[in-house]
Amino acid sequence: MSEQIILTTGIYDLIKEHLRRKSTTIEEEEILLNQLRHAKQLRRRELPEDVVTVNRAITVKDLETEEEEKFLFVQTSKEKVKKGKYSILSPMALATVGNKVGDVITWPFKDGDKKIEILSVEHYN
């Protein structure tokens, strides 16, 4: 996990609002609040290409099972899970947002803690 996540101000505000609505578990809330406290906020055009954010497709690897999975993160209103489009507030997005390629993250998913590595981040329009 990056020492400091990098977010656009819009995503930062979206996550803060999500936390205010108590839409996360206590474990997720603790991690996210700590990340937000230390987050670096940038304008969208200043965001590095390898940072997870909205409208980017990522590939992650579960370090226990060695399985790789791809996710495309979109605005919450454009989520279409059957088409592989996940909300930027979905569990995987919250676990990875603001992190970059090469980061290893341990996250309390509903089916237990998982250690994942971000293998790639690609632009999606």
From TrEMBL:
One of its GO terms (molecular function) is translation elongation factor activity. Pfam families: GreA_GreB. Keywords: Elongation factor, Protein biosynthesis. InterPro entries: GreA/GreB_C_sf, Tscrpt_elong_fac_GreA/B_C, Tscrpt_elong_fac_GreA/B_fam. It comes from the Bacteria. Residues 48-122 form the Transcription elongation factor GreA/GreB C-terminal domain. PANTHER family: REGULATOR OF NUCLEOSIDE DIPHOSPHATE KINASE, TRANSCRIPTION ELONGATION FACTOR GREA. This is Elongation factor GreAB. It comes from Kaistella solincola.
